[in-house]
Amino acid sequence: MWKKLLNFLAVVETIKASEISCSSFITAVVHPKITIDYISTESTLSIRMSTSEKGYIGFGISDDGKMLGSEAVIGRIPNDVAKYNMGADSVAIMDEDNQTLKNTSFVQDESGSVLQFTKLLIDGNGKIIKGNNFNRFIWAVGGDNSFIYHIAKGVFQLKLSPCEDDDGSGISTVIIEETKSYKFFFAVHGILAIVAFGLLMPIAIVASRVRNLLKGKAWFLVHSWLNSLSYLLTCVLFGLVVYTYIKRGSKHFKNAHEIVGLIVFVLLTIQVVAGILRPNAPPPRIVKVTIDTEANIDKEQMKEIGTSNTEAKINKEEGVNKNTKVTGFADNPSTKKEGERKETQVAMRRIIWKKSHAFMGVTSFGCAIFQLHSGVSLYEDIYGSDGYVKYLWTLLGCIFSVLTTLMMYSKYTQRRKSFVQGAT
After folding, report:
1. Is the pLDDT of residue 325 over 90?
2. Which residues of 280-313 are buried (b: 16+ CB within 10 A; e: fewer)?
3. Smallest Cα–Cα separation from 116: which of 106, 126, 124?
């Protein structure tokens, strides 16, 4: 039943007048997050709303089913029960002269929250409630007593008929137009974030640090493709949450999780664009060198310059860097031989790009991990779930342990290779 209520429905419930009593409440709405009961008389409407959540409860009168321009009664701690004017993303308490509610109470304990009040159908300073016709009402339940967010909301139409202690023939009809908690959307948002930030992004980063374990440009392919996929998922989860906020009429980017989320999205966008515009490495420079074949040089240097002579000496004026190859020697008995070597060049813009790319990558990853923790914590607070933060860090701990081990093994193989080459 609750799954159907999470979608846009039209449910009609008919209550016979013989069941309507001025001494007992009638249930108008049953939802996983709220139960709404009422008693309607010729001049008043009494409402009782109960939820298992420890947050505010709101009941509003709306002509079009939207928050903007509606009039609401809200119960919360510590303000108790009062009337409010509703904006698109704000609430403003009415002045004392407009606080005409009767029999108000708001109780909140470990079992949840209960709001109860009686309102005049026509109080002379607000919206009129039709005592013998359809009225459109809205409701909301908060995750706590602040107005930062609500965990569920709904719209329903109620055809009122005055209660009677004697026999009557009136009928009270309830039409539930919309009830939605958006839990599914936030769950998908979180799952996509865990895959993007907790799995794909760290693997992409580590791939650039273990190049010696991957053949050729394999590390670059892994790094670029996983980062691209991570960014694609980020676009999807970012668009999904923006859509959800628009649908539920909430203001965007008002808490730390939402603001940092925007920062992560911007940083990742810059990273992707910077990766596409990465400056190419300049071609190697050809340098002429002179080698004295009768000079002494150790075997490692001989291998590096690519000569088969048993003894050689690099001209101190020209010099030869490591990882260079000398070619083009004449086959003659002279002790002086001319040759060429390729010298790697590094452009300044390439150096700046690499350092900036690494810095922004680390910054983005740090913010992304904060997003995972704060997002799961917020989900727990809104929907009353427990243990999700613990499960998140258990999963991240396993992933990070494997990747850290891989990086340590890469460092070990590099040092071992250097040691073996030095020994020979």
Report:
1. no
2. eeeeeeebebebbbeeebeeeeeebbebebeebe
3. 106
Q: Cα–chain-centroid distance for residue 42?
A: 49
Global pTM reads 0.56
The per-residue pLDDT for 383 is 66
Q: State which amino acid sits at residue 294.
A: E
Residue 300 CA: distances (Å) to CA of 182, 288, 308, 340, 380: 67, 21, 12, 19, 62
* CA proximity to 100, closest of 68, 131, 136, 124: 124
Strand, coil or helix: 137: strand
Please determine, for residue 308, whether its predicted confidence score (pLDDT) is greater than 60: no
Sign of torsion, CA 72 375 109 80? Answer: negative
DSSP state letters, 334-347: -SEEEEEEEE----
- What is the largest distance, in Å, between two alpha-carbon atoms of the chain? 129
Q: Token digits for 376?
A: 């799961």
**Could you tell me if residue 124 is left (phi over 0), alpha (psi between -120 and 50 degrees) or otherwise beta?**
left
Q: Measure the CA–CA gap between 244 and 266, rounded to whole angstroms.
A: 20
pLDDT at 17 over 60: no
Of 193, 204, 237, 218, nearest in space to 395 by CA: 193
Phi/psi region, residue 112 (left: phi>0; alpha: psi -120 to 50; beta: rest), is left
Sort 399 into a burial class: Cβ within 10 Å, 0-12 / 13-18 / 19+: middle
Are 37 and 48 in contact by the 8 Å Cβ rule? The answer is yes
Residues pairing with 287 in the sheet: 341
The residue with greater pLDDT, 167 or 406, is 406
Residues 6+ away with beta carbon under 8 Å from 237: 188, 189, 192, 193, 196
Rounded Cα distance between 377 and 309, Å, is 69
Strand, coil or helix: what is 298?
A: coil
pLDDT digits (tens, 9 = 90+) for 204-216: 999 999 999 988 8
Supply the pLDDT for residue 23: 75
CB 91, CB 84: distance < 8 Å? yes
Q: Can you list the domains of the chain with their CATH numbers?
A: 2-180 (2.60.40), 184-280+347-417 (1.20.120.1770), 285-343 (no CATH)
Taking only the tens place, the pLDDT of each residue in 136-176 is: 999 999 988 888 778 888 888 888 888 865 443 333 444 54
Contact at 8 Å (CB) between 369 and 361? no
Tell me if 289 sits within 8 A of 318, measured CB to CB. Answer: yes
